[in-house]
């Protein structure tokens, strides 16, 4: 249970902001309607035909797994295939399913989320490279700029979290050296906590009562459409309120990836800076994609803050690597 002071601070900050946002939206109803419609058109024309087939395919393969006796190697291969090739938020769906069924640990899930919940190579090469980069950087370097920081982050996070877990267990064992057997038994950490898995969320539902793959896919793509439309409104509102402040416009591009890339492509910057920002936004994926993934993972107890932190770190390093490649023509 959260402390009352934390709740009061959150209420004090969020409620006035929410009321102010509602007032602004009511005073600009035509603006909101137009922006919301733009988001829905974007979702219908681009995301539904590109993402829905992958949702159906990944859902079909996940439904075929025997969760009572899962093949860990096969599940990990499926996870990386879904995460790296199917686009947002298919990787989050696979991570959530594997974590809830104790195939992967919490530390492993947190480590691979920035990598395995990612844009698809089709979007990266076919959309970003062809429409916005204009040959400024070759495809090999683009792949390195996007995926290398995420791979390094996954490895470092997993190793550091594993070491911190061993240290905490070592300290716990030292405290129990001089305790009686009964006391030591009480102080032992359950296996589900040390490995980061969550047995209370394991799949125990009757297959006949669970929603079908088609129903789950339609629900997921509809939720994605709502988020895209909402963030289309927020993006246009941020651009309108930002005036002629360049920094504000650049930060607004991180709200929604497609609108952000379109805005950056015509922004008055040098070609090197523009390319670096485009690949940084691409690596980050947009706040809209973060919230889509949060909605998918809301029942798993995985940390949205850690996932967001990881995406921010990767976006910064993608920006710096792009500057390095372009300035030194690597």
Short synopsis of the structure:
With 330 residues, this protein is mainly α. The protein contains 15 helices and no strands.
How would you portray this structure in words?
By secondary structure, the chain is an all-alpha fold. Helix content is 76%, strand content 0%. It is built from 15 helices and no strands. It has helices at 4-27, 29-63, 72-85, 90-100, 106-116, 121-133, 139-175, 181-187, 191-194, 213-242, 246-252, 257-265, 271-284, 287-296, 304-328. The longest helix is centred in the middle third of the chain and has 37 residues, at 139-175.
Supply database-style keywords.
330 residues, mainly alpha, 76% helix, globular
Order of helices and strands: HHHHHHHHHHHHHHH
Number of strands: 0
Largest sheet entry: none
The low-confidence runs, each spanning 5 or more residues with pLDDT under 50, are: 166-170, 174-209
In whole angstroms, how far apart are the ends? 53 Å
Helix amount, in percent? Answer: over 70%
Query: What is the alpha-carbon Rg in Å?
Result: 22 Å
> DSSP helix count?
15
The dominant shape is globular
Strand content: under 5%
Mean pLDDT: 79
- Oligomeric state as shown: single chain
Helix and strand content put the structural class at mainly alpha
């Amino acid at each position: 249970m959260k402390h009352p002071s934390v709740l009061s601070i959150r209420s004090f900050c969020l409620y006035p902001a929410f009321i102010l946002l509602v007032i602004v939206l009511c005073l600009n109803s035509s603006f909101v309607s137009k922006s919301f419609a733009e988001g829905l058109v974007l979702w219908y024309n681009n995301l539904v035909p590109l993402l829905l087939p992958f949702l159906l395919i990944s859902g079909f393969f996940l439904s075929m797994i025997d969760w009572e006796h899962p093949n860990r190697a096969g599940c990990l291969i499926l996870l990386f295939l879904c995460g790296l090739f199917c686009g947002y938020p298919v990787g989050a769906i696979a991570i959530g399913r594997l974590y809830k069924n104790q195939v992967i640990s919490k530390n492993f899930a947190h480590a691979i989320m920035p990598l395995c919940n990612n844009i698809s190579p089709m979007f990266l090469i076919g959309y970003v490279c062809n429409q916005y980069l204009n040959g400024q950087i070759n495809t090999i370097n683009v792949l390195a700029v996007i995926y290398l920081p995420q791979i390094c982050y996954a490895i470092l996070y997993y190793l550091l979290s594993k070491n911190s877990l061993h240290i905490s267990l070592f300290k716990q064992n030292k405290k129990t050296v001089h305790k009686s057997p009964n006391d030591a038994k009480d102080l032992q950490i359950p296996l589900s906590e040390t490995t980061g898995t969550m047995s209370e969320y394991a799949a125990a539902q009757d297959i006949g009562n669970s929603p079908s793959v088609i129903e789950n896919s339609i629900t997921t793509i509809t939720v994605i459409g709502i988020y895209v439309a909402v963030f289309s409104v927020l993006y246009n509102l941020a651009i309108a309120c930002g005036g002629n402040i360049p920094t504000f416009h650049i930060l607004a591009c991180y709200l929604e990836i497609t609108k952000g890339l379109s805005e950056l492509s015509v922004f008055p910057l040098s070609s090197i800076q523009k390319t670096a920002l485009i690949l940084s936004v691409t690596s980050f994926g947009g706040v809209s994609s973060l919230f889509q993934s949060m909605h998918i993972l809301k029942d798993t107890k995985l940390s949205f803050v850690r996932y967001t932190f990881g995406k921010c770190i990767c976006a910064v390093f993608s920006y710096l690597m792009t500057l390095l490649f372009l300035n030194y023509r690597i």
